[in-house]
Amino acid sequence: MAATAMFPLETVLFPYTPLALRVFEERYLKMLGAALESHQPSFGVVLIERGSEAGGGDTRFHTGTMARIVEVAATERDIELLVVGGERIEVGAWWNDEAYPTAEVHTIAELTWDPALAPLRAEAEKHVRRVLTRAALSSGSRWDPNIEISDDPLESSWQLAAIAPLGPIDQLELLRSSSLAGLLARLIDLTLEAEQILTATFDGGRDDGEPGLTA
């Protein structure tokens, strides 16, 4: 089995979701050069468990996503990429970090859509957008609460997981989902937990008579 180029990040990449990256470290510039020589330029993305993106020596989780390169732009100091998440992967073994990280990976089966899940998906979107709006007002957010998502129910389910205001460990749990029903149900639970934290952090302990934030 051929080695797959890997890019460990402090970010979880979800299927069908875009991610902007800035490449400046020599080993990842080499990785990018090799990837761009292939017919379908891509590399694997996994979440860093301990350590940082730069410098090496990090410990990584084994569940990740293939990143398909869709845009490349060079600046004076680095290369800017836009990738889109593809199939989910599981790292079987890390091979070599000498030039850049490589691994043996196996594809995780795609989740399947069932029309009976439509009410659950709609409920998930309602909660995610509401709590995302609250997060944007209180602490800022990477995603616009009104961002458009795919009309495809499977794709949009993953995109809702991506835009929900959750931490990377919660996101990794969602990425590991074994069913779409499980993904959507857990997404709702985690989003409501995040809302409780936002309420406690930004609405709790007020003694100035001012109303708290509202969605």
From TrEMBL:
Q: What is this protein called?
A: LON peptidase substrate-binding domain-containing protein
The species is Microbacterium commune
According to the record, the segments passing through the membrane are: none
Output the InterPro entries linked to this UniProt entry: Lon_prtase_N, Lon_prtase_N_sf, PUA-like_sf
Query: What region holds the Lon N-terminal domain?
Result: 1-195
